[in-house]
Specification:
254 residues, alpha/beta, six-stranded parallel beta sheet, 39% helix, globular, binds 3-methylbut-3-enyl trihydrogen diphosphate, binds magnesium ion
């Protein structure tokens, strides 16, 4: 293989099919429709959604993954009614309070990605606490995308880099993909191999737009509160039947 300066430095460069993804990222969608179908308030769907997230963490560990990222609140979700936004904030808080001891016991590292600036002080404190308490846990990493938007993350990173350039700490021409990736919220985490979206919608909704440039996508019709280990295993099976080429040619290793 000829190492070219122009070749992108993806975290996983092996082409061909990989039986098990290292990192799966999930767009947990369909809580509202799940509730609506039952004549329940949307919040009931979000509460069931937390239960499904808990199941997904267990399933991911059982399936031998190393990283799981869950999209739980987007930078666009502020457009929802104030009461629903409040409920979603409260559910994140409750999840951290209830699940942190168990996650610590299981040697799970917890990281929160997204913009923390506009979060309530108590949530900010809780999120930092969860990260601090699980720092160094490397059996399995759970990333929670909260107040996360891919464009917002990229812009925050660009601003940071621009400041470094104007302060003379960095040469603009030295900004590589690796340097850029290393400044994102996801620094230190390999790019997702597989992105799953539930509820039948087929869009990215501003999720990991930089990191998932070469991810495989699997769309599941089930609504998020109904997602379970079987759906998860099926999505991974579908992934393992795909061939990842990264722009190369079938059957070559670059
Ligand atoms: C996903 O479910 C949870 C969040 C986006 C916070 P939705 O609340 O989007 O559910 P639908 O799409 O309205 O059914
Ligand atoms: C994406 O779901 C965001 C999360 C799952 C947190 P949305 O329900 O907000 O996405 P759109 O509005 O259908 O694109
Ligand atoms: Mg939705």
């Amino acid at each position: 293989m000829i190492a070219s300066k122009a070749s992108p430095d993806h975290s996983v460069l092996e082409t061909g099919n990989l039986a098990t993804p290292r990192h799966v990222a999930i767009i947990m969608d369909g809580n509202g429709r799940w509730a609506q179908k039952r004549g329940l308030p949307r919040t009931a769907g979000h509460r069931e959604g937390v239960a499904a997230a808990r199941r997904a963490v267990d399933a991911a560990r059982d399936l031998g993954l190393k990283y799981l990222t869950l999209y739980s609140f987007s930078t666009e979700n502020w457009r929802r009614p104030a009461g629903e936004v409040r409920d979603l904030m409260a559910l994140l808080k409750q999840f951290i309070i209830d699940d942190l001891p168990r996650l610590k016991d299981q040697n799970v590292g917890v990281r929160i990605i997204g913009d923390r600036k506009n979060l309530m002080p108590d949530i900010k404190a809780l999120v930092s606490h969860a990260e601090k308490e699980t720092k160094g846990n490397n059996q399995f990493v759970l990333q929670i995308a909260f107040n996360y938007g891919g464009r917002d993350e990229i812009l925050r990173t660009v601003r940071e880099l621009a400041k470094d350039v104007s302060a003379g700490k960095l040469n603009a021409d030295d900004v590589t993909e690796a340097i850029f990736s290393g400044r994102l919220d996801t620094k230190g985490t390999p790019d997702p191999d597989l992105v799953i979206r539930t509820s039948g919608e087929k869009r990215i909704s501003n999720f990991l737009i930089w990191q998932a440039a070469y991810a495989e996508y699997v769309f599941v019709d089930a609504l998020w509160p109904d997602f379970n280990a079987d759906y998860f295993a099926k999505a991974i099976e579908e992934y393992s039947n795909r061939e990842r080429r990264y722009g190369g040619v079938s059957g070559t290793t670059g």
